[in-house]
Task: inverse folding
């Protein structure tokens, strides 16, 4: 079984400032890692994913994340945020070896970008 | 590009009624997942199907059932609805990237817009 912890439930930040949304996971097996974004009253949109290879992955909208196996972390970063980045961000993991490949989500982090 | 389609987008039911939610995966995607997201909560996995067979089961109540049809669309049937069933229900689909025949997906899940179910 896996679990995902997003350490900050809310992150307020000013426009054009950098931001980091933290994600730690716990699993007894190797996992795939994902970040999804959810805008108000909308579905989940994939931002980026780590399946294998380079530990630094780049996604859409200028976001990137780094997989750190020793720290079991997958923190999301953006060097300069925009008002339009205001949304809920979910970190998720799935078991590499599980045929069903269900996603386990963290509790979400609400990014609030202020002008 | 085509996305996951869910219908209806909004549904209002009364307690003890039944509801059916439909999901149409992205073309050529053969794996479908259902998730429930309560107000202010993270999505919780309910059930998944691969090639029309149930492949994994999460915290799905016995009052709920689901299936995947020959055209790969899926339906989530919910009976004896309770107030606590009010939530956003997401469907996601995925496709195995170059996997062998008979192997369910290990790749990305693409989510639909969700069905908002309100039980009064």
Result:
């Amino acid at each position: 079984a896996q679990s995902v912890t997003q350490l900050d439930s809310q992150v307020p930040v000013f426009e054009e400032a950098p931001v980091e949304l933290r994600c730690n996971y716990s699993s007894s097996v190797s996992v795939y890692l994902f970040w999804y974004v959810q805008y108000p009253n909308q579905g989940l949109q994939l931002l980026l994913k780590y399946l294998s290879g380079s530990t630094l992955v780049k996604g859409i909208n200028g976001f990137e994340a780094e997989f750190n196996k020793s720290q079991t972390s997958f923190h999301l970063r953006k060097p300069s945020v925009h008002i339009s980045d205001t949304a809920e961000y979910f970190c998720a993991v799935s078991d590499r070896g599980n045929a069903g490949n269900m996603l386990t989500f963290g509790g979400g982090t609400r990014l609030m970008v202020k002008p | 590009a085509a996305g996951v389609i869910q219908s209806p987008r909004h549904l209002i039911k009364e307690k003890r009624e039944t509801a059916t939610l439909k999901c149409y995966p992205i073309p050529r995607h053969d794996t479908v997942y259902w998730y429930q997201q309560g107000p202010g909560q993270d999505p919780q996995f309910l059930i998944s199907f691969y090639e029309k067979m149930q492949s994994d089961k999460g915290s799905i109540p016995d009052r709920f059932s689901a299936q995947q049809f020959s055209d790969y669309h899926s339906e989530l049937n919910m009976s004896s609805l309770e107030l606590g069933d009010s939530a956003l229900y997401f469907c996601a689909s995925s496709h195995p990237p170059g996997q062998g025949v008979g192997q369910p997906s290990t790749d990305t899940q693409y989510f639909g817009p969700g069905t908002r179910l309100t039980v009064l």
